[in-house]
Amino acid sequence: MQTLTVAGSGLLYIFKCIGYYSGSCFYLLIYAAALVYLFLKGSDKEKDLFVRPGIMMLLTVYNPLTPVLIDKIFDINKEYYRFLWITPVVIILSYCAVKIVSEKFKGRGERTIAVVAFVFLLMGAGNFVYAKGYMATTNNYKMPGEVIQVAEIIRRSSTVKYPRALCDYNLNMEIRQYDASILLTADREKYMNAVAGNITDEMLAAEGSYVNRLLAMVVQERKLPKDILLEALTETNTEYIVLSKESGIIDYLKNYGFREVGDTKSRVVLHCDIEGVNEFELADYTDVWNAQKW
Amino acid sequence: MIVFFEAVLMTCVNFIIYFAFGSLITSRFKETRLSATISILTGFFLYYCIFDIPCLIIMLHWRPLSWLAYCWGIMVPLIVIISAVINRKAWVRCFSEAAVYIRENPFVSIAGILIVAVQTALILHAYEFTLDAAYYVANVTTSLETNTMNIYNPYTGDWQNHFEMRYLFATYPMEEAAMCYLTGIHPLIWTKTIMAGTSLILSNVIYYRIGRELFKDKGTKTLLMLLFAAVVNFFYISTFTSSEFLLTRSYEGKTLVGNIVLPMIILLFMKIREDIKGKRYWWLLALVCLSSTILSNSSDMLVPAAAGVLMIPFAIKKKSAGVFVKYLLCVSPCLFMLIAYVLYVKGVFVFYTYPPLFGKH
């Protein structure tokens, strides 16, 4: 819900939020129907456990005023959907399914058919987690093999303990999960901003906008003048650039002093010896510890 | 294959630890026999509450992760041994009762295990690309690489001059880092396989307990509920649902809040409703609320709201101010953390990663 804001939607925010939250699933509707069923037919225990809390949720979590009020205290735009987790959809739907099967159907045969029918009903009302295909992991790390290969290429070719790299989007998000000794030039927010096409000419012209310049080069394939490129690499201490083999800036980078130190099935790892790069060192806490009494 | 056995072994070790921790509390329940599942659930929450103490002390003194790992590596076996000694009779009785139940209900037991095993196998064998792993998993890898805690930015590896408040008190990833340090297991295997499996099984244990509460211990109905819950979880997918988090982002603390803490609050509410004057389940609720702040800072808002929608109508129905007061006391750790976070956002205070005295700010 990156684009949904309370300020932009006002009292409609909650309805839009529910829309995003549900996606193509009809479970919230079935949940509401289950609550009505329990309200009409349920025992006192069921009303205590599910119906009264359901009404309470309607008055609070699902109240259009609630996100507006919370947003006045702190930014809730991207996180309000988590309040919808309070709705015990999984518990109520599964409970009501069992209740109906066991109370409305007699005999093993009838109940078996009812169970199968409910399973199909629930499947039809939802969206399967692997609807777009099941992608099995190829290694123990649950990482694409190329992430591991690129990390090993960088480690093998680097002469420093903590080399810094700028990678293509997916690799940038995954490589430090595997090997945190590889530092990255761009953090997640800056990278997402670049991928969303939000880097403007004004931002690139701004003083100290080194990371954005490099991101514009990698993401938008903007070819920076040599002095601007070298300045950005030096200021960010970037020695490695990992790109897709289809990237249009590989030759451009090679012309400006980068050399290929390895490749994988779809990526190429480029390295450049940059003068003036500061070698990264971990902060030394010895003085702090010595000053402590333990 | 070795990694597979390592993962299965460590998942079992997790459950043994939770059971040992939990039975320190549940064996004190005099009227009821020790329940393996309730002990495991209680132990899970107690484990993180206890972990938070050495973690915060060591982290806020800028000491290395290795200190925490060794400290925790001593504390956990010690607590397990103490629990085994104190509760040995209750453990033996609990295991023999469980064995009898499995012998008498082989279909329900095997089918229940199969439902959970199929889900676990499916999600553990799947590859998922999720942006948040760039923070949560990389935080564990970074802490391990630098032998520090929350001091370096997981996204880039750069030094941060202050602790990020959202993650400072939610020390769940530091427990993962400490366990990786102790066992030598790679953080990716620990977070995306061992803890993913552990959390999925735990969430099913809660559904099982809720089913038993709702269906008065009738095994077949409870089993059916487990089946339907699994179907709903696998089909309630839209990027934002707690089911999606459970199946694709199980390494995140907020997944545990959505799929373990919130259902656990419902389970405890069922118990409290039946025994309104008793104290034990209120204490358990307080433990769950406190522990939830350690799992994820999302619980600071979610847990008071979730407990509130259950407790407030109940307090009104019973015309009991006591229920309302107890509810407020239980969720007070979450409210305290929420206020602290708001003050941090407003710039009132900050925890530095280096003492001001040393002039690094």
Word description of this protein:
The complex is a heterodimer of chains A (about 290) and B (about 350). The mean pLDDT of chain A is about 95. Chain A has 15 helices and five strands. Chain A has helices at about 5-10, 15-20, 25-40, 45-60, 65-75, 90-105, 110-125, 145-155, 170-180, 190-195, 200-205, 210-220, 225-235, 250-255, 285-290, and strands at about 165, 185, 240-245, 260-265, 265-270. Helix content of chain A is about 55%, strand content about 5%. The two termini of chain A are about 45 Å apart. Chain A is an alpha/beta fold and about 290 residues long. Chain A has a five-stranded mixed β-sheet with strand order 2-1-3-5-4, sandwiched between helices. In chain A, helix 6 (about 90-105) packs antiparallel against helix 7 (about 110-125) and helix 12 crosses helix 13. The longest helix of chain A has 17 residues, at about 110-125. Chain A has two domains: about 5-125; about 145-270, no CATH class. With about 350 residues, chain B is an all-alpha fold. Chain B has one domain (about 1-275). Chain B is built from 14 helices and no strands. Chain B has helices at about 1-25, 35-60, 65-105, 105-125, 135-145, 165-170, 170-185, 185-215, 220-235, 240-250, 255-275, 280-295, 300-320, 320-345. The radius of gyration of chain B is 21 Å and the shape is globular. The N and C termini of chain B lie far apart (about 50 Å). At the A-B interface, helix 2, helix 4, helix 6, helix 7 and helix 9 of A face helix 5, helix 8, helix 9, helix 10 and helix 11 of B.
